[in-house]
Write a structure and sequence with these properties.
The protein is mostly helical. The chain has one domain. The protein contains twelve helices and no strands. It has helices spanning 2-19, 26-34, 43-52, 54-64, 66-69, 82-113, 116-137, 152-167, 173-183, 188-214, 220-247, 254-273. Helix 2 (26-34) packs antiparallel against helix 7. The longest helix has 32 residues, at 82-113. This is Undecaprenyl-diphosphatase. Keywords: Antibiotic resistance, Cell membrane, Cell shape, Cell wall biogenesis/degradation, Hydrolase, Membrane, Peptidoglycan synthesis, Transmembrane, Transmembrane helix. GO terms for molecular function: undecaprenyl-diphosphatase activity. InterPro entries: UppP.
């Protein structure tokens, strides 16, 4: 029985590592998979697990972008890297709306919107937005093609889009922030990178909140399942992040929009007919 639960966690870790960074909604996939591959754990543990497993994905960003996100260089005369420090100020500003809503109304949001119907509708809506925005931007030169040129105003607007993802599961945090960035005329590469960096404080905060609510008390099996999920999501995320950054050099996000629409339709069909 214990081995089966660990194998389930490996599969869920793979799904998390793939869907966290591709703008296709990790929540939508987790809800669908959980119908067929349910962890034999308490509901409280599963609610915590599906959030804290994201810590592996965070570490993948830290490892891959260490030089781009570390604001200090103790070997240099200027210990603080000004551009990176300012970038982090923008990131924390962008996190404020979602952080306030998450802390105050996390349970209410889960109760209202964490379900098949809501997730499916949001998947479809943002899938359509991806296609519409990419068609609109076709042939246009981006206004911002360097992350250091992203303004404070742009960071705040992207933070509002992240708030939409915090309220409506299925939006996809990366999907929402990328849609917001593309609407502002930010290049796909910069939009993706800012989304990666924005995930670090957001996921750390969300994970800490869930761990506090759960109580930091685990059985040996629960601890093993959680650690396995985190490790697998870390390994998979390393490859997925590299793939995405190479992919968007030559392609747009429309394929992810179509995928979201199809997945949303599958969820609706399952909800109403199965």
């Amino acid at each position: 029985m214990e081995l089966i639960e660990i194998l389930k966690s490996i599969i869920l870790g793979i799904i998390e590592g793939i869907t966290e960074w591709l703008p296709i909604s990790s929540t939508g996939h987790m809800i669908l998979v959980d119908q067929f591959l349910q962890l034999n754990m308490s509901e409280a543990f599963k609610e915590m697990y599906f959030v804290v497993i994201q810590l592996g994905a965070i570490m993948a960003v830290v490892v891959l972008y260490w030089k781009s996100i570390l604001p200090f260089d103790f070997k240099s005369k200027e210990i603080v890297k000004k551009d990176i420090f300012i970038m982090w100020v923008k990131i924390f500003i962008a996190c404020v709306p979602a952080a306030i809503v998450g802390i105050l109304w996390d349970d209410e949001i889960n109760e209202l919107f964490y379900n098949f119907k809501s997730v499916a509708i949001v998947l479809i809506v943002f899938g359509i937005l991806f296609i519409v925005i990419e068609n609109y931007n076709k042939g246009r030169n981006p206004k911002v093609d360097n992350i250091n040129n992203l303004s404070f105003k742009m960071a705040i607007i992207i933070g509002v889009f992240q708030l939409i993802a915090a309220v409506f599961p299925g939006t996809s945090r990366s999907g929402a922030t990328i849609v917001g960035a593309l609407l502002l005329g930010i290049s796909r590469g910069v939009a993706a990178e800012f989304t990666f960096f924005l995930a670090i404080p957001v996921m750390l905060g969300a994970s800490l909140l869930k761990l506090i609510k759960f109580g930091f008390v685990f059985t040996s099996l629960e601890g093993t399942v959680l650690i396995v999920g985190i490790i697998i999501s870390f390994i998979v995320s390393l490859f997925v992040i590299k793939f995405l950054m190479e992919y968007i050099k030559k392609h747009d996000f429309k394929v992810f929009g179509w995928y979201r629409i199809v997945l949303g339709c599958i969820l609706l069909i399952y909800y109403y007919f199965l």
